[in-house]
Design goal:
Layout (H helix, E strand, L loop, with lengths): L1 H6 L2 H8 L2 H8 L4 H28 L3 H28 L4 H5 L5 H16 L2 H12 L1 H11 L11 H8 L1 H19 L6 H24 L3
Pathway: Cofactor biosynthesis; thiamine diphosphate biosynthesis
EC number: 3.5.99.2
Protein name: Aminopyrimidine aminohydrolase
């Protein structure tokens, strides 16, 4: 399922996973202020993704799906947000500043799209909308580690690369792919065109999120 979704929007997928923002992280020459802007907005992004996983509990057809959604909510609220705050502190970002931030247009567009797909569609539609972020970051980290121009020694973004390229996150992404495939298998093959559109739209919004960081746009 996941590979079919990517293949249906390969040009957009490549533009997302090989974006100039990503290349800047790989080389270590992404301007500091661009990364800081991204980190601030990503904090707000995670809050809405916790809501999306909470919605997946409501949309779930099985206890197993409900537990998966709960794991997502717990992981974000009890772990990822705390790690994000600690990481942002290292970059000179005050946690209070993040709590009072205004969302950028790119953040609003992406997070509200995911929630809308979840509200209007099934749990599969929601997982499809989530997957470019959840699984895409794992693929991006692997892509970075495969490039000849990637610099790891002395790279200020090394910990970001290590986090998403590490075994824990890679396993998390693999589980998300399995969950998506299992949920889709219970649906109809005729739904694929709708899933493909959602996946492409979410991928395009991911491109916009990177570009927001690069342009320092509000």
């Amino acid at each position: 399922m996941y590979d079919r979704l990517k293949a249906a929007c390969q040009k957009d997928w490549d533009a997302y996973t090989q974006h100039d923002f990503v290349k800047g992280i790989a080389r270590g020459d992404l301007p500091k202020e661009c990364f800081q802007h991204y980190l601030k907005q990503d904090y707000l992004f995670l809050i809405h993704f916790a809501r999306a996983y909470a919605l997946s509990i409501y949309k779930a057809d099985t206890i197993e799906d409900m537990r998966y959604g709960m794991e997502g909510v717990t992981a974000i609220l009890d772990k990822e947000l705390e790690l994000h705050v600690a990481y942002s502190n290292e970059w000179g970002i005050n946690p209070k500043e993040m709590e009072n931030l205004e969302e950028s247009k790119a953040t609003m567009a992406y997070t509200r799209y995911v929630l809308e797909r979840g509200m209007a569609g099934t749990i599969v539609d929601l997982h499809v909308a989530l997957s470019p972020c959840v699984v895409g970051y794992a693929e991006i980290a692997r892509w970075i580690l495969e490039q000849d121009f990637t610099v790891l020694e002395g790279n200020p973004y090394r910990s970001w690369i290590d986090t998403y390229g590490g075994a824990e996150y890679q396993d998390h992404a693999g589980a998300a792919i399995e969950r998506l495939s299992a949920a889709a298998a219970r649906g109809s093959a005729s739904d694929f065109d709708r899933y493909a559109k959602t996946f492409r739209d979410a991928t395009r919004l991911e491109i916009g999120f990177w570009q927001m960081g690069l342009d320092l746009s509000e």
